[in-house]
Amino acid sequence: MTIKETRIILLLLAAASAAAQTTTVTGTITDPAGDLLSGSCLIQAVGPFSAATGWRVTGAPMVVPFAGGLFSAALAPTDSATPSGQYYRVTCSVPNQTVSGRAVGPYSWGPRYWLVPTNTTALDIGTVEITSPPPSPSWKVLWPQMDQGGAALGQVPQWNGSSWMPSNINVSGGGGAVSSVFGRIGAVVAQSGDYTTTQVPEGTNQYFTNARALSALSGLYESPLTFSAPLSRAGNTITCPLCGAGATLNGDVTGPTTANTVAGLQGRALAATAPADAQYLGWSASASKWQPITLPPATVLSVFGRTGAVNAQAGDYAFSQISGAAAWAQLPASVANVTNNLTDMLDRGAALQNLYFQANGTGAINRGARDKLRDFMHVRDFGALGDGATDDSAAFTAALASGAKEVRADGGNYVLASVVTIPKGEALYFGAGTHTVAGILLSDSTTDPTGVGKLYCAGSGLTTIRLANGSNRDLVSQVNFSSLTGANSPYGLFRSEISGCTFDANKSGQAAVSYGIRLYGHGLYLHDVTVQNAYSDGIYTEWGIDSTYASPNTDLEGYFTEIRSMFNGSNGWTFRGPHDSTFTNVVLYKNGGWGLRVETSAAYNGNGHISNLNTYLNSNGGIYSNSSFDGTQVEATSSVGWGMLIDTGSGTHNLHASQFAGPIALEIRAPAQFISGNVVNSTAAAIKLNGGSCNCTATMVNNTGYQIDYTSAVGASIFFVESPNAIPGTMFHNTPSQADFIFFAFGGSGATNRYVALPYGTVHVAGWSPQFPQSNAVMAVINDGSQVGNITATSFIGSPILTPVSFGNLGTTNNSLVYCTDCGSNAKPCAGGGSGSLAFRNNGVWECLSK
After folding, report:
1. How many other CB atoms are there within 10 angstroms of residue 581's CB atom?
2. Looking at 196-210, 306-320, 688-702, which range is the least confident one?
3. Is residue 663 reached through a cis peptide bond, with omega within 30 degrees of 0 on the bond before it?
4. Alpha carbon distance 255, 273 (integer Å)
5. Minimal CA–CA distance to 480: which of 470, 488, 491?
6. Nearest to 136 by CA among 86, 72, 202, 182
7. What is residue 737's predicted lDDT score, i.e. its pLDDT?
8. Dmax over Cα atoms in the chain, in whole Å?
9. C or N terminus of the chain, fewer CB within 10 Å?
10. Which residues fall within 8 angstroms of residue 176, CB to CB, at 6 or more apart?
11. What is the pLDDT of residues 622-637, one digit of tens each?
């Protein structure tokens, strides 16, 4: 049988018993859009181990494919592995593929880390995945390095140059003496209450003190030494009356009786090496002799025989006798809580209870010092370092739980590896610098409108709060958002404030839905805020339609000023409330969806008042709305899609001094919109009526497509349109209806295609395409005598009064009615009038009706 065949058989045997020896891990793998993906995962044990059943798991990687989002893998449990501490490293990849008719991928993620417990039923991936690998051992012992000899009780592995073998503990390798005990340094003097020698059992203790040796010799020890002839003992003296002057001793004591040498203890050799200061006599298994050794640093289990709790004794050192700096952690716990030391003194010190604080200025009153100190807390009071590396989450949590009205975090760059929550009624202030967080939550309520919390920074150009890699959650949100969104609740946040911050949501470091700011509530206040690089929307706000709110006119608005949202993966701002909000000086730039998306439904209501809103270069377009709002200086521009899209179902939008630009600069799908401003640089249509109508006053410049697209217009529209340029594109797509009122003024003197059509009349001008339909009631407008082309019309009573004539020769038929934009320079119609006059031909004479 070949090696290859042997491996195949082993794999088959392992597979045959896998059902009884493995835990199945399953899951559904999708992209953020919910598409079911196909790909494979590479699963590898971090090191060889033996499963509980005794079969062996190697470190070789295993490829597990998945299709249609369905993943399943049978793995040996790690909770009973030998050696312990085992886990799996998992990396997955998804190639380019087509799902539901669209291309997705490629994707890859990992490494992820799995701890797989023993379980008879399948486990979801989420129950076995951990955020980071377990700690690895600082050194490894390989199986071939282990000596196969038996070990005795108390022995440890010792390296002999080629393998690890059982050995007694050898403490001769270095270390040092204990330099101080509970702050006492210098010579150690026995104190009252110390343990006596008789209270310490001998056991296997191999160290001897003078007192113990004298005690043993004097017979005070529990097991006195005994002597055989010729030696005898008298008190503390050993005598040998039978030994002659020339006699010698052998064994542990050697040499002449008059000048002998201790060569061993209990038959074990004693080294001749002279001891150094602070060394002890100890047994060395490697040298097989007693020799001077230096104890390695170790935990002190007892002091002068005292074990258990340490209580102050008479003669102990005072603090004034201790040199050097003492850390708070070295003080007895009863002295102070480090982070609340000053508060603790105020609580405990009777004299300090009478301290007061008085501010400068007329009318200032005395306040208790403790009450004043609690006006705000600093996270450094609770142990935060702000060094840009240490996790200060615990200090922030403790400070926010202190009940202070404001918690400050300035004077450093803080790292929060855990999500922190701002309680109701409290404010958290971040100073200048860059602070990295796992997420910030505002406390709210699902039962009452009291979710008031505040997040302040030193200024959006000074303070940056950045979402940590792998957080995969909103940078700023609230505790109960998932329960409130879409529920038409009147509760949530109330008068919460965010001010002076730049929020960097770090989309490149996230792999799942993650918003910059996502809030539900009303009375919201955002000022001087920049949101950038969110995986999803930069800003998302929502509130219900307040149908059940007790006081529907109280604090419904949001107040949003000096806001910037840019470079986000989806919309710059999805606005679903609170309704009647005010937007001032808002910039939405280069976002992956719409700049501003305003939405209303049965569960939320996004409408408001906008002043100076600018949207630039957003992927879908500038502004989308199926709601209603009014505004001035609204600039909705895009290089793709729409400048602004007013969708089906919208209410009225009343926008003034605005500007729209895009392939379709302004598309209207709902009736009765009121728009005035500039419409520029469109390529498909400047204004498109697609199921809607508009009362529009516009200046059109450089629109190369249709000026107005009437293809699906619904309802009557009124247009006053002018341009300093001749029309660069086609005037209309499809034909206006008899109910439409349209005024066009393109180009200067001598330009063609200048006319007005009123609801009760239309003009048919030769050479224009498409033409207005003719009607039985016509008002023709002649701008100047240089106009060219023919005009055809019928009288107000149905009989022809004007035959095809040139603009410069309208004829002299009585009952003709003409509007002249510059009658002062036109001798024939309305010669006695002026600019902007109506002229009526009566009895062969033109009469100016509006002058």
Report:
1. 24
2. 196-210
3. no
4. 18
5. 491
6. 86
7. 72
8. 174
9. N
10. 278, 294, 295, 296, 297
11. 999 999 999 999 999 8
Instruction: Report d(CA 656, CA 813) in Å as an integer.
Output: 43
- Local confidence band at 781 (pLDDT 50, 70, 90 cut-offs): very low
Task: Say whether pLDDT at 674 is over 60.
Answer: yes
Tokens 């050794």 found at: 293
SS (H, E, C) 140-183: CCCHHHECCCCCCCCCEEEECCCCEEEECCCCCCCCCCCCCECC
Report whether 661 contacts 641 (CB < 8 A).
no
Amino acid (one-letter) located at 613? L
Strands 56-57 and 102-104: unpaired
Q: Which of 648, 645, 618, 614 is nearest to 631 (CA)?
A: 614
> How many Cβ atoms sit within 10 Å of the Cβ of residue 81?
20
Closest CA to 581 of 602, 549, 611, 601: 611
What the block records as the tokens of 567 is 């470079």
CA–CA distance, 508 with 556 (Å, rounded to integer): 36
The phi-psi region of residue 535 (left if phi > 0; otherwise alpha if psi is between -120 and 50; otherwise beta) is alpha
Instruction: Give the integer Cα–Cα distance in Å for 22 and 10.
Output: 16
DSSP string, 17-70: THHHH-EEEEEE-B-TT--B--EEEEEEESS-EE-TTS-EE-S--EEEEEBTTE
Cα 255 from chain centre? 82
pLDDT at 316 over 90: no
Residue pLDDT, tens place only, 97-116? 988 888 888 888 888 998 99
Peptide bond into 83 cis (omega under 30): yes
User: CB of 839 within 8 A of CB of 829?
Assistant: yes
Query: Measured between alpha carbons, how far is 440 from 471 in angstroms, rounded to an integer?
Result: 11
pLDDT recorded at residue 694: 93
Cα 396 from Cα 438, distance rounded (Å): 13
Share of the chain above pLDDT 90, in %: 35
CA distances from 349 to 63, 131, 207, 332, 346 (A): 67, 46, 49, 18, 6
User: Which range has the worst mean pLDDT, 33-47, 512-526, 587-601?
Assistant: 33-47
> Whole-model pTM?
0.53
Express each pLDDT in 484-524 by its tens digit. Answer: 999 998 889 988 999 999 999 999 999 999 999 999 998 89
Q: Token pair for residue 764? A: 């048919």
Instruction: Tell the residue number behind the tokens 């210098």, with chain if given.
Output: 186
* CA end-to-end span of the chain: 116
Residue 90 is which amino acid?
A: V
Q: How far apart are CA 766 and CA 748, in angstroms?
A: 20
Tokens describing residue 242:
């039978």
Mean of pLDDT over the chain: 76
Kind of pairing between the strands at 628-637 and 607-616: parallel
Q: State the DSSP H helix or E strand holding residue 10, giving kind and residue range, or none if neither.
A: helix 3-16
SS3 of 648-686: CCCCCCEEEEEEEECCEEEEECCCCEEEEEEEECCCCEE
Q: Answer left, alpha or beta for residue 353, where phi above 0 means left and psi between -120 and 50 means alpha.
A: alpha
Contact 583, 558 (CB under 8 A): no
With H, G, I as helix, E, B as strand and everything else as coil, classify residue 227. coil
Dihedrals φ, ψ of 7, to 5°?
-60, -40
Average pLDDT of the segment spanning 810-825: 49
SS3 769: coil
Please give the pLDDT value at position 274. 86
At 498 the three-state DSSP class reads strand
pLDDT digits (tens, 9 = 90+) for 639-660: 888 999 999 988 899 999 899 9
Q: Can you read off the two tokens belonging to residue 327? A: 């850390």
pLDDT for the residue numbered 184: 62
* Contact in structure between 608 and 629 (CB atoms under 8 Å): yes
C-alpha to C-alpha distances, 200 to 213, 226, 486, 816, nearest whole angstrom? 14, 21, 73, 132
